[in-house]
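Lab notebook page, bench 4
Experiment: in silico fold of construct C2
Operator: M.H.
Input chain length: 477 residues
Purpose: comparison with the prior construct
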Amino acid sequence: MDVSESIKQVNKIEQAYEEIVIKKLDTELEKFTALIKNELNKYSQEKGITIANSVYSEIHPFSLKGRVKDSVSLKEKIVRNSTIAKIHHTDPKKIEKNIYSTVDDIIGVTILLDTNKNLELIADFFFNKTTDDIKVLSNKSDSKKFFSNILYYNIKIVYKDIYPIEVQIKSNLLSSYADLEHKLIYKDNRVSVVKQVNSEVIQAIVPNIVAIENVIDTVEKSSRNDTFQEIIIDRQKYLEKAMSDLHGDDYDLISSYLGIIDFLLYRSYIGSNIVNKCLETDFDKFVNYVKDLTEVERTFLYDKDENNEVFLGQILVEYIKEFKEFVRNLLVAEIFNGKEYSVEQEGSDEFIGEKIKKVDLIMGVLESENLGDISLTRRLFNSNLDRQTGKYTNFIYDQLFEILEVYLDFVSEHSIKDDETNILLDFVEISFVSVSWNEMKETEWYKKFENKLINLDINEGDWVKRAWETNIGRAKR
């Protein structure tokens, strides 16, 4: 599915949402807040946290505000989370149902407290004393969140067994800071390096109430004097224009991916420099590299058209024509830990060549792979930004290179050549299955693989299990 078709589906979801869902949600939000307010009032009296003064006989230590997610925010979220295919349907009623099952904060309610003094007590109301119409989906520990060092709660609820609601419990002070960050960072579609700097500034001043009046000026100015930041800004401005020219008015739906698109292209550019033993990296050479990738006759590394592809993969496939070179150089940069080619590497042709051979083995897997609905190649792009380090991470790279080492040890021990048996592809496949080891041993695939090894006169040993255990997610569990 191409980007334009995905955007058409998003627009149909928006239309159904505006025509049949929003008004219904407004009504349910009103009912829910009235119910919560009434129950919390009684709960506050029971717990003795209701106070009085000469004017009011009862002053409750909280206030409520709620919102139904508007259609623009809904569109942004389903694009950002690649849930277009899960929600879209030809029947608007099905779209409504799919929205409820997919978007867990379609209704948002914030309970504001004067201070954090009663935070735990109010949170316990939901975990210990809820009504028949309210089911809490998250546990207390997982619901704890922090903004800088300030605790608040983010609780997932389903109302009347239908409507997903996100309830946040926080102090008025924290809410002010969070609203400020939301306005200046989360909804800001400018280049991501500016957003990252803004986020760091906001986090730094959270403990200092007096500094709040200086926040906006500080964020808007966002130190641009640093040369490195200037280069990133120039790169992202170039890509922003290119993507905007390609997608026109629909660019707003793509803009949130700008930071990672820049990261992936620059990472691939670094890989190209390593392959070509180029010592210089500058903006003009980066632009020329991107042009070489995007302005030639289209050649695909593979041709998949799956509804479940991540949206970022769709964007990159449409933008980049020399896809195989892009991915190969990305893997080269990864195996060198993203380090640029340096003078110290000169004369190390054999060292570089051996690493690139490993990359080409992985490329062989990616070109022939058939590992399910979502292409493994596109999973290479599904990186997450670590806000503390400012770096993108993706465990798939680690998993691929770990399974490669298992395979290389295997063929070395058994002195075999894998030109015909393609055992590396088998190892990669088993490393990405989600079943238990005992279940995997009962599969038809495992029996075929056992026969393959028997034909090669190889005693399996623990090689298949070692391949299976490279699944990092399973190892963490």
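Observations: The two ends are 34 Å apart (CA to CA). Strands lie at 62-68, 107-113, 134-136, 144-147, 150-159, 163-171, 384-386, 391-393.
Next step: discuss at group meeting.
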